[in-house]
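Researcher: Final request for today, and then I'll write up notes for the group meeting. The sequence and the SMILES for magnesium ion follow.
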Amino acid sequence: MAAPASKKGGSAKDLRTISADFVAAVGGPGEFPSGPAEIAIVGRSNVGKSSLLNALANRHSLARTSKTPGRTQAIILFDLLLSSGDKIRMCDLPGFGHAKVAKTLRESFSPMIQKFLEESKELRGVILLQDCRRDVDEDAIGFAEWLREIQLPVVIVATKMDELPKTKRGGVIARLQRDFDLEHPPLGVSVRENLGIADLLHQMRRMARQAKV
Ligand SMILES: Nc1nc2c(ncn2[C@@H]2O[C@H](COP(=O)(O)OP(=O)(O)O)[C@@H](O)[C@H]2O)c(=O)[nH]1
Ligand SMILES: [Mg+2]
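Model: Predicted protein-magnesium ion complex:
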């Protein structure tokens, strides 16, 4: 079915996910099924990635939320169909940050995941999640720099904004913008307050529509 990229559902208020379908858990090179434009999502364990994915997918249990994350290095793929007709393949990368020995974020990824980020023909960008309460995260900043080096667009998203009093939110967003040296302020989201979810869908749609560089 060739879904038209219609104007229907085009405003921030209206854009939503109509369906979300699990595609595959990919554990090795050469296993990637072809499909629509891909967007990867990554963050430290416990950053709120599964909760956000469920909110983006409009589902309660597509991605498992947990306090005891597994150690799997698989990439979980699932396809979103948006109300605008756009299809996006979400690529859920393993969480990081549990290794006892400090490593850079990139080194903590298996060669399979690095290869995916560097070589996937459909990958249009990466959503990098940061807990809004966390201090400067050199690992994540270095990772974002590397993504820019390999010419992958990156969207920084501050999670759990509801944990900050409203008066402190702007300051944290401004600090993250400086830390990551961003042209535009990063997006703050909260699954609890349903804050920023529709905006993130919009940014994802924009990235997915962009031609691969
Ligand atoms: N306050 C708050 N807590 C959240 C939010 N999103 C997730 N959490 C909590 O953060 C913890 C980790 O969430 P999870 O989605 O499993 O994170 P993951 O390890 O990155 O997949 C859980 O206790 C969630 O309930 C949010 O928007 N606000
Ligand atoms: Mg999770």
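Model: The chain has one domain: 17-209. The chain has six helices and seven strands.
Researcher: Thanks, that's everything.
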